[in-house]
Amino acid sequence: MKASVIIPVYNGSQYLATTLESVLAQTYPLHEIIVIDDGSTDSSPDILRSYGERLRVTRQDNQGVAVARNVGLLQVTGDVINFIDQDDLWPAGRTAALVNALQSNPDALVAAGQVEILYERPRPPSPLDNFGTALREFYVGSLCIRKQVFDLLGPLHTGLGYADDVDFMMRRREANIKTVYVDDVTLQYRLHEGNTSFNRSVTNAHLMAALRESLQRRRKEEGKQRDERS
């Protein structure tokens, strides 16, 4: 099973090299590592060039993470797709665990693992926040996805800010895409002040937009089913 990796990058120089090293350290052989440089103005392009032919890099004007991921999807030649953001980390065995889960469950189209939160913000977390290691399917970096999922669902939504991953989770559930789960940590998510989700008001607006889209799709489907029964 050929495993492809898609990495959207935008001004990620602070963490980028560490992220790339965690990808290259995977025990499962990777078919291709596709990087979409979404118009970086920092030293990210230099870091990417330093890895030579180990990465396939496409540079474009800044258009947002969802567009960058979709550009990567158009280039995929592997059987399964893995995403990771420029500031997150993969444990070395994560891809092997996820691919093995899919191989053992031929009817499953997605494999998901646990997400470990690496809290790196200077102020202590709120007692109301839950940052324990847990299943967090909306983080696409914790998944391994058969390529045909995107044939069924289409590309990621580009009109929801950075809630395209939440929308993707909702659409998978609406379509009853079978997911198999592993107990392994498959993503280490860095929580720092540079996260796009740091602004709670913006984050909430994007999440609400994704929820509205899901509600509209469900209502449309319910209306279609009523019409078919009448």
Task: Describe the protein.
There is one protein chain. The protein has 230 residues and is α/β, with parallel strands linked by helices. It has one domain (3-229): Spore Coat Polysaccharide Biosynthesis Protein SpsA, Chain A, CATH 3.90.550.10. It is built from 7 helices and 8 strands, in the order E-H-E-H-E-H-E-H-E-E-E-H-H-E-H. The protein has helices at residues 16-24, 44-49, 65-75, 94-104, 148-153, 164-174, 200-229; strands at 3-9, 32-37, 56-59, 80-83, 110-119, 134-135, 143-146, 179-191. Strands 1, 2, 3, 4, 5, 6, 7 and 8 form an 8-stranded mixed beta sheet that branches. Helix 6 (164-174) packs parallel to helix 7 (200-229). The model has no long low-confidence stretch (mean pLDDT 91).
Helix and strand topology:
Layout lengths: L2 E7 L6 H9 L7 E6 L6 H6 L6 E4 L5 H11 L4 E4 L10 H11 L5 E10 L14 E2 L7 E4 L1 H6 L10 H11 L4 E13 L8 H30 L1
Parallel strand pairs: 1-2, 1-4, 2-3, 5-8
Antiparallel strand pairs: 4-7, 5-6, 5-7
